[in-house]
């Protein structure tokens, strides 16, 4: 049997997830020695092998990338570069949140270049881009595929390394009918409410932490974006629901197609910076305290939840109350929990639960997707 063709890997984005991915890559290369890392890129610097005869070490790239004066390749030049590689396959790992790169996915896929990414933008933005991506891919979850196209995997676009998208795809592919998807999809929101309104507390307990203090604590621990408003506006959860709803068969146009409850006080939406926002957030602690106490008087806790009702086509994101014995109320830390209620799992839903935030677990999902691509190409 002839040896497997080389696989040329381009990694875009070496932030928190990207660095963790590269740290995991050497384990993959031990099993797949045909995998050659030929490009690493970040916003202002790029390191790539011009002749494809050499490779970049995933554990020893930082100094070379820092000193590199090679230009950052826009998508069209990256496409030309990868197409010029000797006989083999090319894979792009997009660890960014760039809409520009996501917009280029169909072009890469049509050229036979595979894509692995945690980037939500390509799957939650305009529905036309969604259709173009999967029409160009050879492993579309629908019936319209391109046999000559590249493969695309995006498990980590929802739930970090949790098997949420693969579980949903398996349910649909085996003929199950999705009735409702519901859960706590944000590691940030999970951490905030698990600390602000823990299920172990009671209405008789006085005080408790202030909302603004918990948000500041979450930011200091790295659970929020640099500007916490990017988490508190609910758009991250909304994008995840768009992805899951579309995979379940709903024609969701965008995150503007359904209600999304923002936790940003109206007076602070126009704050000049995240720092300014946090400095003033304490002025509105009373509002969140009322929400928590209203739930406590009914013996419940409040959680930030997203749901997709596939029967009536209803999608929503926002605060909901749950009995303290409910699985959504009993989470710890920044865990995610997602419930799939289907025809097969009608009485007892299928539950996926675990760490839903962090560079290492998100990178694990990306690395796992890369292995799936390598197995398919092999």
- Give the C-alpha Rg: 22 Å
- Helix/strand order, N-terminal first: EHEEHHEHHEHHEHEHHHHHHEEEEH
Helix content: 25-40%
Largest sheet: 6 strands, mixed
- How many strands appear in the DSSP assignment? 11
In percent, how much strand structure appears in the residues?
15-25%
Number of helices: 15
The pLDDT mean sits at 94
Shape: globular
Strand order of the largest sheet: 3-2-1-4-5-6
Oligomer: single chain
Describe the structure.
By secondary structure, this protein is α/β, with parallel strands linked by helices. Helices cover 38% and strands 19% of the residues. The protein has 15 helices and eleven strands. Strands 3-2-1-4-5-6 form a six-stranded mixed beta sheet. A five-stranded antiparallel beta sheet has the order 9-8-7-10-11. A hairpin with a 4-residue loop joins strand 2 (35-41) and strand 3. The longest helix is centred in the last third of the chain and has 19 residues, at 359-377. The mean pLDDT is 94.
Short description:
This protein is α/β, with parallel strands linked by helices.
Features:
alpha/beta; five-stranded antiparallel beta sheet; 15 helices; 19% strand; globular
């Amino acid at each position: 049997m002839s040896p497997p063709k080389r696989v040329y890997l381009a990694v875009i984005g070496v932030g928190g997830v990207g660095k963790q991915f590269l740290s995991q890559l050497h384990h993959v290369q031990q099993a797949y020695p045909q995998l050659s890392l030929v490009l690493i890129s970040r916003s202002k610097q790029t390191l790539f092998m011009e002749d494809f005869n050499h490779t970049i070490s995933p554990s020893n790239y930082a100094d070379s990338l820092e000193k590199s004066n090679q230009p950052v390749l826009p998508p069209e030049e990256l496409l030309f570069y990868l197409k010029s590689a000797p006989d083999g396959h090319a894979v792009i790992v997009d660890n960014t949140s760039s809409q520009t790169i996501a917009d280029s996915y169909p072009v890469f896929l049509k050229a036979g270049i595979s894509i692995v990414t945690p980037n939500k933008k390509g799957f939650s933005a305009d529905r036309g881009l969604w259709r173009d991506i999967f029409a160009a891919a050879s492993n579309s979850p629908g019936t319209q595929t391109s046999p000559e196209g590249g493969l695309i995997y995006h498990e980590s676009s929802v739930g970090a390394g949790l098997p949420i998208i693969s579980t949903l795809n398996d349910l649909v592919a085996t003929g199950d009918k999705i009735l409702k998807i519901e859960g706590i999809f944000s590691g940030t929101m999970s951490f905030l409410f698990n600390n602000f309104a823990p299920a172990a507390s009671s209405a008789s307990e006085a005080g408790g932490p202030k909302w603004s203090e918990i948000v500041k604590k979450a930011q200091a621990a790295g659970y929020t974006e640099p500007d916490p408003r990017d988490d508190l506006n609910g758009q991250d959860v909304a994008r995840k629901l768009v992805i899951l709803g579309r995979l379940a068969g709903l024609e969701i146009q965008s995150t503007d197609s359904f209600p999304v409850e923002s936790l940003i006080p109206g007076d602070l939406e126009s704050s000049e910076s995240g720092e300014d926002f946090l400095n003033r957030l304490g002025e509105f602690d009373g509002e969140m305290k009322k929400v928590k106490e209203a739930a406590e008087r009914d013996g419940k806790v409040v959680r930030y939840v997203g749901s997709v009702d596939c029967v009536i086509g209803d999608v929503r994101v926002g605060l909901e109350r749950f009995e303290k014995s409910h699985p959504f109320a009993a989470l710890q830390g920044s865990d995610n929990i997602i419930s799939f209620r289907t025809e097969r799992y009608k009485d007892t839903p299928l539950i996926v639960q675990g760490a839903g935030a962090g560079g290492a677990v998100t990178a694990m999902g990306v690395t796992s997707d890369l292995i799936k691509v390598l197995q398919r190409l092999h």
